[in-house]
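re: that complex we talked abt at group meeting.

here r the seqs, copy pasted straight from the sheet so there may be weird spacing, ignore it
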Amino acid sequence: MIRKIDINDFYLVIHNIGQIITVLGLTMFIPLTVALVYAEYSVALDFLIGICCCVIFGFITKRKNKDLPAPTMFHGMLIAGVSWLFACVFSAIPYYLSGHYLSFLDAVFDLMSGFTTTGLVLIQDMEHLSNGLNMWRHLVTYLGGQGIVVLALSILIKSTGGAYKTMVGEGKDEVLEPSIRKTTQNIWIISVVSLVLGTTILFVIGRIEGLSFGRSFLHGMWMFMSAWSTGGFAPHSQNILFYHSYMYEYANALIMIIGSFNFALHYAVWKGNQKELFKNIELKSFIFTSSSFVLLMTIGFALTKTYSTIHELFRRGVFNIISAHTTTGQMTIYPTQFANWPQLAFSAACIAMMIGGSAASTAGGFKNIRVGIVLKGIGHEIKKLLAPEKAIVTTKYHHIREHLLEQNLVYQAALIILAYIVIYGLGTILGMMCGFPLGTAAFESISAGSNTGLTAGITGASMPIVLKVSYIVFMWAGRLEFMAIYVLIGTMWLMFGKPKKRRKLM
Amino acid sequence: MKKFLIPVLLFFVMIVPSGRLIAITYTPTELINNALKLDGQEIELQGEAVGEIIERDNGKCWINIFDGSSAIGVFIDIAEAKKIGIFGTHKYQGDIVAIKGKLYANDEATGGELDVQGKHLKVLTPGHPILHPVPLWKIIFAAAGVVSTALAFTFWLNYEHRKKKAKELSFELESIINEDIE
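got the structure back, here u go
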């Protein structure tokens, strides 16, 4: 049976989206302040215009709570899915007004890339960006990593109904505490404390490595935001190469690894449960897969004799494999160098991006837990085949606590992995249709769909519009892990699909 | 004499394009895209100096050279780098410099980085401040936005106030009715 959609459903969704956009608009006060501090008045006005647009939209979409239906999972999914689109359009206003984009679509692309913590960019003349705009670019990644709905829920918890449902729609289904308010607050406490610690560490390294005081601080904060949220943005076109520092690279690698872990794991360790680090299925899966990829890459480089020392291999090889696996996208080589990597190392980077980090984290890709569950599922089936016919075979896995492996769970994990493979394949075909070679097209498509942001050279302001639009969709779908997108497509079908079955909307 | 000169000139014409004897001028993008071809060769790099001098030990430092789309790192003596007066940022167009040096696709000395080991730096065009005048239309838009937001906020406050009043009134009415019933 299919549910009915009426005008009140529409009002509920748009009311919540309006509130999320209002909160997002208010966060623009941070880059506005930075712009004013550095006397970037034109940039400050861009943010003021952006704030006004967001707040006015919030007022226009405001509805009386008593007229609205009780939020269900359906509403939560719709709110999460659509609010990300609205957020990109509204947040792109200061981007576009800055004059660093060739079109509004390019600005929306970069915003989607930022919010989904992908890290692909179409921005022009990056070396002359203002501090205000750089602050916004990195803040967007940071907010996107924690989840913009999580941000709104932390602030508007009293007025936003169906909090848990909306969080699930955003791909954050871990409940750290019985109350959603506590959960969202804990996610933010962990992130803000880490921000302070990480910025301090990168600031000190920046000073040791010869950066000026102001640059060490601002860049330390931005690079932390980029690594922690597994975003991959940087204030310079060379990305992390700008600093020419192994200390900076190793510190960022560590931050991106920690950032790619599940919030529940962070919280368990935060609460003193260090044993979880040795039992967690996702962490075990991450260690296994990353070691395998590093081994494959090393064999690839050894065969072609690309790098002659361990130091080179770590800085140019391992760093980029970790960046790919955590779906961060910070690069210590240039995009054209990626295309020249040995096939074995190139394939290892592609598969690492496909798998990605942990579920309910800032990372993208299939997620380690799904890979772990499917592998356990395969093991379970083999065990069942080998066991006596009447024996009851059970399999358990450890994630925060012991869980019994259920068939439905394996099925769901496999279904989402399949959905990712479909978008990776679709993107590859589209890339090839636009004239790019198979390897490069596949690399770029996987990078967009898994929210990684590494590039082999396709992504740029001059790439075809069809690729820009499709990568925007892939980044969005990949970040929300498809469920919200399925609900949105279903709703569109109910609204505009078969005329006979169309539900009355207005 | 002519018979001798022509083969000598021809020899140089054949050799020069390979870039072995005389450094050819490249942009950072050209160097990055042809790194494997130009690996280990003497080159001249031209572009805008951006960021700042990143000082390292032994009198050496890093500078970054930008051509509008890509940038490349140059490892050079601090004394040479100090010839740069202005580095490119949001507020400044950096000096346009020409740097002679060797390109390395995987520089062993710098952890496998694609970079230029610079020897000599010359400022071709000095940098200058970039003015960012605030356009009038932006001021008008921002002012209109602030006024509209203030109006919307006032309407909302008014609405909330009326809602609160109505609630209080209904509560009072309810209590009066209850008293009457009693």
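couple things i noticed - The beta strands of chain A are 396-399, 401-404. Residues 246 and 315 of chain A are 7 Å apart (CA to CA).
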